[in-house]
């Protein structure tokens, strides 16, 4: 037997949430084939199997958060032994209880994914979760709802005291969906509710919910915890500098078609800004340091984290040895890391060990921002959009490509003067750019 453990996804990570099993007990799996998905505050990714064989036993159910190196499953490399049953906690009950606040409800193996909870209009306030609710009337033995029922649909039916055999399903194969339950409950409450007093506000249309309740994903919870911890740890201060990117913009315009043809990806402003940040970090190494109690830890290597927006969160993969790469190498690394971050293919070491971070909110049109420091680093640079702007040069109006760069820094270690000296260096490099990009 081979133990499968919860991996450590970064030097500061002590636990992870197992969000989804990709194999069932008894199924064959190959070495390095994706086995399960996990979520931490640094990464949301698939974990490969450490060995080939048969998944013999699942020890940690979906939605549970466990410490690193916890055994979560076992693989029978021989493949011939009897498969152990899942623990009772992992098995899907007929009517699962509501999800805890900090974890997702484990989904039964045969049921479709849990849908966000919506509170339908029933003519009065929904009772608190702790209040006892009547059980769902037993379904007649000779008539069952078409298709499988998700845990969410069963839970809604139980709380609203609905007979699901009376609900018409519009899902695949006649399956009853959350929307079907909401529409049926809304129609029932509208027909049963007494006339509203003239002064009362009108009810929403049948089937329309007043609110929608959706539990935070494990990744969102971890991000929230990490951001609050960072604000509590560091004395955040932000400085903003206006940078003339005209020379970089012209160089980029000349080379971007060549980049697309030769390498298959676009040439953006970000690798230029990263190169300029590297120059600043070399001259002012305190911004590439971290704090350990009352000790300053100077990092001799420059590993720059690049924030990548995901559909449901944010992740910061790291360009290791960023000071050894030119613009082409940096652009290739940025494109590669961003693509694999969005497809959940990052390795644990690719989200660990960053010494400085850059976040490009300008790609969404933002002029500037005040990013939160990515602990245990002491500074993070924010990149605003690059816009053609009228500016005064030698008492004349000129059109220039302007970008606002912000730097959030930890005032426990870095004073405002040093932060502005660093930003001035970055600004000088970008405004006087003269080298080629390869």
Structure description:
The chain is globular, with a radius of gyration of 27 Å. It folds into three domains: 2-76, RNA polymerase II/Efflux pump adaptor protein, barrel-sandwich hybrid domain (OB fold (Dihydrolipoamide Acetyltransferase, E2P), Beta Barrel), CATH 2.40.50.100; 117-213, no CATH class; 234-431, Chloramphenicol acetyltransferase-like domain (Chloramphenicol Acetyltransferase), CATH 3.30.559.10. Strand 20 and strand 21 form a beta hairpin. The protein has helices at residues 151-160, 178-192, 218-233, 246-263, 270-283, 327-342, 416-431, and strands spanning 2-5, 15-21, 28-29, 34-39, 44-48, 53-58, 64-67, 71-76, 117-119, 211-213, 236-244, 289-292, 295-298, 304-306, 308-310, 313-315, 318-319, 356-359, 379-383, 387-393, 396-410. It starts with a strand and ends in a 7-residue tail after the last helix. The strands form six sheets. Strands 11, 14, 17, 18, 19, 20 and 21 form a seven-stranded mixed beta sheet that branches. The protein has a four-stranded antiparallel beta sheet with strand order 1-8-6-3, with no helix packed on it. The protein has a four-stranded antiparallel beta sheet with strand order 5-4-2-7. The chain has 438 residues and is α+β, with helices and mostly antiparallel strands. Helix 5 packs across helix 6 (327-342) and helix 5 (270-283) crosses helix 7 (416-431).
The CATH C-level class name of the largest domain = Alpha Beta
CATH topology title of the largest domain: Chloramphenicol Acetyltransferase
How far apart the termini lie comes to 51 Å
Please describe the biggest sheet, giving its number of strands, its sense, and whether it closes into a barrel. Answer: 7 strands, mixed
CATH superfamily of the largest domain: Chloramphenicol acetyltransferase-like domain
